[in-house]
Amino acid sequence: MRLRIKIILFTFLALFLLKAGEADSFTGSVPSHNIRIEFDLKNHTVEVVDRLIINAVDKNEIKFSIHKNVSIRKISETGGMDLHYFIRDGKEKKDVTVVHLPVNKSVIEMDIHYTGRFPDLPGDIKFSREFLSDKPVAYAGEEIILLDGSACWYPCMGRFTTFHVTTVTPTACETVMEGTRVSREERNGVTTTSWDFPHPVEDIYLAGGKYIVNEDTYNNISIYTYFFPEDTGLSQGYMDYSKKYLELYESLFGRYPFSKFAVVENILPTGFGMPSYTLLGQTVLRLPFMVKTSLGHEIAHNWWGNYVYPDYRKGNWSEGLTTYTADYLYDEMEGKGASYRNQLLRDYTNYTYYSNEYPLTRFVRRENPADRAIGYGKGAFVFHMLRQMLGDEVFYKGLRGIIADRGFKVASWDDFRITFEKVSGKDLKWFFRQWVEGAGAPQITVGDLKVIPDSTPVSHPEYIAGSQNMHGQEIPKPVRDDKNNDPKSGYVIKAEILQKGVPFEIYLTVSVETERGSILSSHWVRGSSNTVEIRVPSRPVSITLDPNYDVFRRLSQEEIPATMGRFAGGNEKVVVVPPHSGKDLAEAYSRAASILGGSLKIDTPLLPSSIKTGEDTVSINDKVYDRNDSVLAVTLESPYNKDAVVVFLAGNKGEDIVSVADRLVHYGKYSYLLFLKGENVVKGIWEAGKLRRDIHEN
User: Fold this and answer.
1) For the purposes of burial, counting CB atoms within 10 Å of the CB of 17, is it exposed (0-12), middle (13-18) or buried (19 or more)?
2) Is 241 helix (H, G, I), strand (E, B) or coil?
3) In angstroms, what is the C-alpha Rg of the chain?
4) Which of 143, 209, 217, 199 is nearest to 176 (CA)?
5) Of 317, 347, 517, 640, which sits with the fewest C-beta atoms within 10 Å of its C-beta?
6) Whole-angstrom Cα distance, residue 567 to residue 673?
7) Tens digits of per-residue pLDDT, 164-185?
8) Crossing angle for the helix pair 413-424 and 379-390, nearest 10 degrees?
9) Which residues of 339-354 are buried (b: 16+ CB within 10 A; e: fewer)?
């Protein structure tokens, strides 16, 4: 007789009801769940009893949402009578209303009995630098369990809840959730694991699979990896790097707010961060740069976003702050901060324009490149400019103040403003009004430029006239690289700084290159036209605005190289392909142009000397590749439109050309790429200039 094996997963979400006074950013009490869930993974079904505890003051009914594949069998008061309810079906979820609640009770405890079937594992999940899928997943199968809280696999009521979870699985299946693993026991072929999260959390995300679990500790923090057997060799590296990031962030932000951090592998291409763990797709997990960048980003989220919660109604600040204190910080620590800031400005200039810009108070999540350029890029720059203005000590003191005041609570941009004002003693309303509540970015250039011999009297040559001190920010004296400090010799530069469109108030660094060295000076600039005066001790050669990219702004044309991102953000897209023959190749090029959103043009463009194409070969930097196995993608300044960028595509196999065209959107920062047998083997970025003007003595 063939036995039907039923895998049972008991999930007790036994929770404490959090009173409003414990978290002043939440209204009313936060619901708690006590759930027992039995999985039949072979048939993708679940049987569930959820003991829900809610605040019932002044309520005669309650409402919640549940996944569309769930069937409710019964709702009853715990230990009491059945409760009446009705259901309204929706496209993705069902809305349930429980009526005729017991009277004269401030807290109601009810049991919700339901079954569900979760057989659909989506195959179109997008996750890349440019795109992030917002599709919630509810799947229960033998290969993996993925129950995303936003899919409402349990009754969803409002934004926050608390929980305690006990899972019972076959010994081959491990589960992981937010919070603390308080116990784990193996007996009679099953594993019983308990998780506890007694604080408000946005969603309950349950993951499970045939994982090999490895464990380590750092400073009384448990560090886990939940990896598939074929990837356990990566475990030690992830745990070692996790320790390094925890050490770094505890020194900057204070004590890590959870008892564990876990890296969990997923069969889908995800990169999600939940309180105390991150869920990484298998292909993502294996990328060599993950431990050096993205892992730290997810750990930083355990302070920003998963401990201090963003107030989405007033703008999601957490992605910008996490980007700044993770991805950007790592580059800065290696001396590459200016390069990273330059890339953020390139992205903003390439992907946003006046019709799709919006203020940070409206950013919620990343769904396209423009969202990323605003929420991540501009958001990171806001914190950079604050740090530049306040200094490291005050800046990090402010961040620690937010953590101390808003842990497990909602925080808004206003909370950051108030905290930074408190620790700095400065009025920052103007700063947040301009950079957070306002849309757009300044666009600056050099206007009229005059050089005057030193004999011309100048009162404060290193300052913008009339603005030596603004917003309590002292403008430092110029930094001089030579030893000629004789105030009676040299030159005075009068440089007009122009702003296009609505002017911003910015703290601008100017570099002057002289015959004897370079000089840096800083100036408050506001208005459409400003004249700054700079005294230099020897003949000036050139002037550069914002040489280190410390101001959030739109870059000028000369500062942006041709890249895939600049092509994607352009209005006139042309895909150039070489002369070719054959119907299949012609159809492939036509389809590739359609994928890239451009028109097709057959031409032989002038390529840089480092790239050569022949009938059977492609070479980059003198390394030769077989063109039959290769696809070359190169961005070039358009010969047909001076303000546009074209993409040149060349390959000999139609299916490879189409495949590469479909993937180019994920390589926005690069200027040229070569794919060999479908794998990217070469990529690079053209050099670009700076906002520089040569000086000719008047």
Assistant:
1) middle
2) helix
3) 29
4) 209
5) 640
6) 14
7) 888 888 888 999 999 998 889 9
8) 10
9) ebbbbbbbbbbbbbee
Give the span between the Cα atoms of 673 and 681, in whole angstroms. Answer: 8
The answer on pLDDT for 463 being more than 80 is no
Q: Could you give the percent of the chain with pLDDT greater than 90? A: 73
Structure tokens at 93: 């979820």
From 178, 202, 563, select the one nearest 365 (Cα to Cα).
202
Rounded CA gap, 680 and 684, in Å?
A: 11
For residue 130 the two structure tokens come to: 């440019």
- Residue 134: its pLDDT value, please? 59
The predicted pLDDT at position 467 comes to 38
Q: What is the DSSP string of 617-636?
A: EEEETTEEEEGGGEEEEEEE
Band of pLDDT at residue 29, cut at 50, 70 and 90 = confident
pLDDT attached to residue 125? 55
User: What are the tens digits of pLDDT across the range 218-247?
Assistant: 999 999 999 999 999 999 999 999 999 999
Q: Which residues contact 651 (CB under 8 A, 6 or more apart)?
A: 627, 630, 631, 632, 657, 660
Phi, psi of 70 (to 5 degrees): -95, 140
State the pTM of this model.
Answer: 0.88
Tokens of 665: 């959107």
Distance CA 693, CA 698 (A): 14
Q: Does residue 387 carry a pLDDT above 80? A: yes
Q: What is the pLDDT of residue 690?
A: 94
Tokens for 365, please give them: 């999540």
**Following CA atoms 510, 354, 640, 690 in sequence, which dihedral angle do they give, to the nearest 10 degrees?**
10
Residue 374's SS3 state is helix
DSSP 4-66: ------------PPBPGGG-TTS-SPBPEEEEEEEEETTTTEEEEEEEEEEE-TT-SEEEEEE
Using the predicted structure, report yes or no on whether residue 27 has a pLDDT greater than 90. no
> Which pLDDT band, with edges at 50, 70 and 90, does 471 fall under?
low
Closest C-alpha among 49, 23, 203, 35 to residue 113: 49
Residues 493, 499: Cα–Cα separation, whole Å: 19
Q: Please tell me the chain's helix, strand, coil percentages from 3-state DSSP, rounded to the nearest 5.
A: 25, 35, 40
Residue 34's closest CA among 141, 124, 109, 144? Answer: 109
pLDDT for 479 equals 47
How far does CA 181 lie from the centroid of its chain?
A: 28
* Buried-exposed string 567-597: b where 16+ CB fall within 10 A, e elsewhere: bbbbeebbbbbbeeeeeebeebbebbbebbe
Handedness of CA 637, 642, 643, 645 (dihedral sign): negative
| Residue scoring higher pLDDT (580 or 607) | 607
Give tens-digit pLDDT for 207-218: 999 999 999 999
Counts of helices then strands in the chain (DSSP H, E): 14, 40
Cα–Cα distance between 156 and 288 in angstroms, integer? 38
